[in-house]
Amino acid sequence: MTNTVVVGTQWGDEGKGKIVDLLSEYADYVVRFQGGNNAGHTMVVNGKEIISHLIPSGILQQKKCFIGNGVVVDPFVLLDEIDYLADNNIDVSPNMLEISNRAHIIMPYHQEIDKAREIKKGKDKIGTTGRGIGPCYEDKATRVGIRFCDLLDFDLFKEKVETVMAEKNFYLKEYFKTDPMDPALVLDQFENIRARLLPYISDVSVSLDQGIRQGMQILFEGAQGTHLDIEHGTYPFVTSSTTVSANAASGSGVGPGQLNEIIGIVKAYTTRVGAGPFPTELFDETGEKIQKTGAEFGATTGRKRRCGWLDMVVLKNAVRLNSLTGLAITKLDVLDDLDEIQICTGYEYCGKITTDFPAQIDLLAKCSPVYETHPGWKTPTSDMTDFDDLPEKAKAYLARIEELSEVKIKIVSVGPGREATIVKENIF
User: In Gene Ontology terms, what is one molecular function of this protein (predicted)?
Assistant: First the structure.
């Protein structure tokens, strides 16, 4: 039995959705273990683009899916997504999807606080999506969060919401100078959707344990990327959850000894959405070409992604933090037309070279990338399905990534569709 974790190694948007969709064929269960609807996974199935924000990508393979306790869930977005998938003839019934009773609910006041905070920060804003993810995790940490199990007793739910909203309204009115929210309206919204949500609520930890005992193979699906991790990322330009592989256990309620394979998704170059330091970012025609060819727009926000060369300091940091056992390289085809391709092997700061990812955000912003240059292969790869058929220069580029990272490449993606994939080594 192989239980596999899929994580992003860069700043998110590495193409995890496609890889999870691909691997879901061989899994029995697919679990989302952190983040919220600030993340988006884009899959292309039979030429049609499907975007999910909360429900694991495995639902497209009609595998049983779980939203773990480490996820913060906007129930209105969740129900919209269920309807959207159902309209695309995908079964998202309670038999196919379970939501942890311990998962925290993103409340309407979380979103108002999130937006008001960004407005108040002005030019110093961190680029949050404004979906209430951060404020929800804040309430979780300060022990005033609302969980899905609270919906089981609506009188208790009402009492908790009214108590919390007294504080939130004071915050909104007195600090942000915005209008307070009406608790009655918020409660009315939840009363209207409660009946739809209740059949999905379960103890996901128990369900997964039962599955493991029955020999089920589980795929754990991360959101965002390693360098958006609240603990290890480019703080404060990070997300509000732990994105690394260790949280697959904590965020879903299984023991870490149940995690067997950990696959890091690596875009063949690097992208980043929103603010924060990005040492290999390109501001020239090459950067624009990569952005256009790769259709680099955020699946959740539609924001243009910043583009740059592959950064091995970032990747090696992810290898260590996640205990990666394999790599999946995505969007190799985006580099097909380039004459030269560069790989960052280290950072220069004050005349010294480092290959360690610095903690200080100001220092990182002042680092200059140290590059090695590789010849482009100038050959289309999007129709290739066998690794041996790749151009020799493309194989050399991939071999160098393996050499520098000290991790084997197991999958190479050369296009958005399922069929545009080279499986070098079957993970399951």
Answer: GTP binding
